[in-house]
Design a protein that fits this description.
Elements (H helix, E strand, L loop, with lengths): L1 E6 L4 H8 L14 E6 L6 H7 L11 H10 L3 E9 L2 E13 L2 E6 L11 E2 L3 H4 L2 H10 L1 H4 L5 E7 L2 E2 L2 E2 L7 E3 L4 E5 L4 H6 L3 H17 L3 E5 L2 H23 L8 H12 L6 E11 L8 E10 L2 E9 L9 H14 L5 E6 L3 H6 L2 E3 L2 E6 L2 H21 L2 H11 L14
Helix pairs in contact: 3-10, 9-10
Length: about 425
């Protein structure tokens, strides 16, 4: 399937002015429309896609490797939206069509496990399709898009990210109930810690370190090779399943397609500044528990941005050693010396994230319906997001809802996952 149609603003003079800008300084006298092409396969776009994703401020979740791993392990109906101007690809939105009843929703590939989404676009894209032009063009293309989906639902998008305004920031959106949390990293680890109460942080680490030494000592291990990475990943799935069961929560990593997706990521070869999934583990070094893995984390890196995709701890090991906290300390210290500028704890508000982070990033869900059914779902999504946001802003109510989900109605303060 490929659909090629032109999106042209009503004001031909405006389009003419925009069309004269071409990267590299070339000027064109003729008006050139911005074309949208829709694809149902990724492979023909691979070379263009990989060139486009190189931008430092673009999310690795829309990178080719991440999206291909998802598409190859899921029965997804792909809809790759490519924006072309003067023969040059200026935008790619890697989407899949999912059904909620009769309603077709276009969302980012693998969005269930994406911590931050941006789509892919060039620096010139905002000039070629500024807000008024983009909004008008999309509105005029609504009938064409409605053949494929009822609603664009582009979730977990920061409208301002790393000093830049997103080109889609003027499209209809609702504030997501969850923010994302990041820590600025400096080459000097002590300077990094100084942003988040270095004295308290160092004291806590020394306490954990002494407790671990008394139990056999520890080592921080990064899985080498796909076999070791997949073995560590399998142990993560076991630890996380036990954790979710203990909390009475559904296991989001349970199904085989999800596990196959992460295994596919773990097998992709890494470079010094790019890896879709790298497995870190904290192990007991000596004694009767030698080799026991007590904490695991999965990191993804693109350029100077690292995202912690997930983490787990061994619930059966001494909780007073805070293995998850210790592993974060060791990973961040290591990354400070490897050119990383931003460590991202991902989406979701938890106490351990706030204790580590100096940046809170609001994320939005962009909702652009193409049909009346899509408009109804968009309105329902806005209402749900608002309700969830209100609940999460009330700790007592949020704790009660968590207990209801686990089948326990007595009130307890919500616990954060140390992993």
């Amino acid at each position: 399937m490929q659909l090629d149609f032109q999106i042209m603003p009503a004001d031909g003079d405006v389009l003419g002015r925009l069309a004269r800008y071409v990267p590299g300084g070339e000027r064109r006298s003729a008006a050139i429309p911005f074309a949208i092409q829709l694809h149902d396969r990724m492979e023909p776009l691979e070379a263009t896609w990989r060139a486009l994703e190189a931008g430092n401020s673009l999310s690795l979740h829309q990178g080719y490797d991440w999206c291909h791993a998802w598409a190859s392990t899921h029965d997804s109906r792909l809809l790759i939206v490519e924006g072309v101007h003067a023969g040059r690809t200026e935008m790619i939105l890697p989407l899949e069509i999912v059904r909620h009843g009769p309603v077709r929703i276009a969302r980012f590939l693998g969005s269930r496990f994406s911590n931050i989404n941006t789509g892919l676009y060039t620096e010139a894209f905002s000039t070629l399709a500024p807000p008024a032009v983009l909004r008008g063009a999309l509105d005029r293309a609504r009938g064409q898009f409605s053949r494929y989906f009822d609603l664009f639902m582009l979730e977990n998008m920061p409208l301002h990210w790393r000093g830049q305004e997103h080109p889609f920031s003027h499209l209809p959106a609702v504030l997501n109930q969850n923010a994302a949390f990041q820590l600025t990293l400096h080459p000097d680890f002590e300077r990094t810690l100084s942003q988040i109460n270095a004295k308290r942080r160092r004291k806590k680490f020394r306490q954990c370190e002494r407790r671990l030494e008394a139990l056999g000592g520890y080592e921080h291990v990064v899985a080498e090779g796909s076999h070791e990475a997949c073995r560590t990943l399998g142990l993560f799935f076991q630890q996380k399943a036990a954790r979710f069961e203990a909390l009475g929560l559904p296991n989001v990593f349970r199904d085989e397609q999800t596990q196959a997706f992460f295994r596919a990521l773990a097998r992709i070869p890494a470079t010094s500044d790019r890896y879709p999934l790298q497995l870190h583990a904290l192990k007991i070094r000596d004694g009767s528990e030698a080799g026991r893995v007590i904490a695991i984390a999965g990191l993804s890196r693109k350029g100077d941005h690292v995202i912690c995709q997930f983490g787990s701890i061994d619930d059966g090991f001494a909780p007073e050693t805070s293995p998850g906290e210790t592993l974060f300390h060791l990973m961040i210290e290591k990354l400070c010396g490897e050119g990383v500028a931003l460590f991202d704890f991902g989406i979701g508000d938890q106490a351990y994230k706030r204790s580590w982070c100096n940046i809170e990033t609001a994320q939005y869900d962009l909702l652009w319906p193409t049909t009346l059914a899509g408009s109804a779902v968009a309105a329902l999504h806005r209402a749900r997001a608002g309700a969830k946001r209100s609940i999460k802003q009330n700790p007592k109510l949020y704790g009660f809802v968590q207990r209801l989900r686990s089948g326990k109605t007595e009130f307890v303060q919500p616990a954060s996952d140390d992993g």
